[in-house]
Design brief:
Layout: H1 10-28, H2 34-55, H3 61-68, E1 69-72, E2 75-84, E3 90-94, H4 121-135
Antiparallel strand pairs: 1-2, 2-3
Length: 140
Amino acid sequence: MKKGLNGANQETVIRKLNPILRDFANYYKGVVSKKTFFYIKSRVWEYLWRRCKRRHPNKNTKWVRKRYFQTIKGNKWTFACKIYDRRGKEITITLYPIAETTIERHIKVKGNVSPNDPTLKEYWDKRHQKHGKSYWEIDE
C-alpha cells in the first residue's frame, strides 16, 4: 500500500483502493485467477489491519475491529465506513471484495466461422451482445 495513505482517513483509503482492486479484477477475471484474488484479498486485509493497529496502539483488538470493520453479508471483517452523501443521507462504503469476483471463461469461436460471412450475422451479433453486457458492468 502507498505510504501516502498512512495518515488518511478510512473513506480516503477506500476510495483510493477500490478503483485499483476493481480494475485488476475486471482485467484478470477472464483467466484462471481465483487463487490470486484470494491472495490479494488476504494481503490487503493484512495491510489494513496493521494500519489500523498502528493508528491506535493503545486500543485492544475488539475496539479496532468495531471501529474499522463491519459485518456485511455475513463477513465480519469488511473494511467499511459510514459517510453522508450530498443529500445528507448516511451510506456505507466498503472495500471492493476482490475475492468475490466471478471468473468468466473465454468462449472460443467455432472453427469455420468468419465475421465476414453475411449468413452468420446473427451469431456474431449474439456473441458481441453477450460480451458487451459483461464488459461494461460494474460489480458493486
